[in-house]
Design goal:
This protein is α/β, with parallel strands linked by helices and about 500 residues long. Helices cover about 30% and strands about 20% of the residues.
Length: about 500
């Protein structure tokens, strides 16, 4: 598969590996609502924050939406959107790499972009996600009138690239039917089965049983389908449908026969389409009005309307699913996810994580009625916790940071061995069984011995105290006092902390 090359590419594609795992420290002075809420608002560099999330959320995020800088060669108040092309690729590649690891097997990512970097983004994302997992490129018409100041063309749309973790199994939720779509259904013959509309019974595709004449009940003989076409059903099935009053001959009986499709037979939703007009999902002016209503001023030049994010989350998630936005901006994705009953993680680097995202989400909890609130019946409730990036898990000398507690290190050990997130906080040395291998961590005196190094050294006595497992074991500890031959006999692999964990 073709790949994109740029200055220092080899260093940039490995950049995520060198990012240290950091602690996430709760700051409840900015949290709000239900203290037990799983929703997270993280302030800090999103590359560091995404790496910090990996041990806990790898493979668990159902939908990712990001609106990264477009690299438009213009200055934005809250971040620099004037990056050289190679710098933009340096920014986006490692973040997409970690986002891919966070996405669940049935998950999907939506990425907003314009033509400045959109085509390069497609090549990079093909490399990370796999070209076969590209779903489509949605066109969002973001302006409702042309820009007369444009030098060449008025740029009226953005792209939204969509990739599934596994395109073979991912299925979008259908869109609800609109009044306009249902308006086409009538009942001119007072059929007791209700309203219906006609559907063509012929097509250009060859069908071996699709050439026959029809004698209509009105005395007219129809020699066959229109020239160059075939009936889409056999003659036997045609007359079976006619007997069931599912064939429409026209009000006078002179029309080409058509199939009656009843609204009651149509599935409740329709397949999502790739063109999203502003009449359906809003435009940039709608987004700016929403921001002004919340903050009294235009905080961002390019916000997204809540209706746009609502459509994305409707297509990709169900209530309770986890949503992630690592370029949170003014907080729109988190606000919409909250109103729609989804769990969410939002990451924003700037001060406006506190000055704008926090107050916006507090207003949502209090029941603000802007954006999509009335459309989804939002009232009030819920909550979120605010986090900042803390110390690295490993100190500068390579040792485990003394601030790290057992559940945190356990999550990192489990992720290092399985590349998956530990589902529940660990409270015992046996972290779990993965592919018939028991994974054990001896740390922080987890066995109750509070002396220095107590319970952190693998001895024969300690091994006998561990839960039995009839299979291989991987045991992490500060040291091992069991000879290598006996470890091999018992199918035990010992890894020394922090050294063996640091290098994995």
């Amino acid at each position: 598969m073709p790949i994109l090359h740029w200055l220092d590419r080899d260093k940039h594609v490995r950049a995520a590996d060198s990012v240290p795992y950091r602690l996430l420290e709760a700051d409840d002075t900015h949290s709000a609502g239900d203290p037990a809420s799983p929703n997270m608002l993280i302030q800090g560099d999103n590359l560091d924050a995404l790496k910090a999330l990996l041990p806990f959320y790898a493979g668990r995020v159902k939908c990712i939406y990001i609106d990264p800088p477009y690299n438009t060669r213009s200055a934005f108040e809250h971040y620099d959107d004037n990056l050289e092309h190679s710098q933009w690729l340096e920014l986006i590649f490692p973040r997409l790499t970690i986002l891919h690891s966070l996405l669940s097997e049935d998950g999907v990512i939506f990425i907003s972009i314009d033509d400045n970097e959109g085509h390069y983004l497609k090549v990079v994302t093909d490399e990370i996600w796999g070209r076969s997992n590209f779903i489509t490129n949605v066109i969002w018409r973001k302006n409702y009138s042309p820009k007369s100041s444009a030098r060449h063309f008025s740029e009226d749309h953005d792209h939204i690239l969509i990739y599934a973790r596994n395109s073979d199994t991912w299925v979008p939720n259908p869109m609800p039917r609109s009044e306009k779509q249902d308006k086409a259904y009538k009942n001119p013959d007072n059929d007791p089965r209700g309203i219906w509309k006609t559907s063509d019974l012929s097509a250009r595709n060859f069908y071996s049983l699709g050439k026959y004449s029809i004698q209509s009940p009105f005395g007219r003989k129809i020699e066959g389908p229109p020239e160059g076409r075939y009936w889409t059903i056999s003659e036997e099935n045609f007359w079976r449908l006619a007997e069931d009053n599912r064939i429409w001959w026209g009000k006078t009986g002179q029309s080409i026969p058509q199939l009656k499709r009843f609204l009651t037979d149509v599935k409740a939703g329709v397949t999502p389409q790739t063109y999203w007009p502003y009449e359906d999902v809003g435009h940039t002016q709608d987004a700016k009005k929403e921001i002004v209503a919340l903050f009294g001023t235009e905080v961002f030049l390019t916000p997204k309307p809540e209706a746009l994010i609502q459509r994305i989350l409707h297509i990709a998630t169900n209530p309770g699913d986890l949503v992630l936005d690592s370029f949170l901006g003014s907080g729109t994705t988190a606000a919409v996810a909250h109103k729609m009953g989804r769990r969410y993680i939002g990451i924003e680097m700037g001060d406006h994580a506190v000055t704008h995202c926090v107050p916006r989400l507090k207003k949502v909890i209090e029941g603000e009625q802007g954006g999509i609130s009335q459309a989804v019946g939002w009232q009030c409730g819920g909550g979120f916790r605010f986090y900042r990036l803390g110390e690295p898990v490993f100190a500068a000398d390579g040792c485990i940071n003394p601030a790290i507690r057992f559940p945190t290190l356990a999550a990192h050990v489990w992720f290092a061995e399985t590349a998956t997130a530990l589902r529940e906080p660990a409270t015992a040395p046996l972290l779990g069984i993965h592919d018939n291998t028991a994974i054990v961590l001896l740390y922080n005196g987890i066995l109750g011995d509070k002396r220095p190094n107590g319970g952190n050294v693998l001895t024969a006595k300690l091994l006998a105290a561990l839960p039995p497992h009839n299979g291989p074991k991987i045991i992490y500890g500060e040291a091992c006092r069991i000879p290598a031959e006996r470890l091999k006999e018992r199918a035990i692999t010992f890894r020394q902390t922090p050294y063996d964990l640091k290098t994995r």
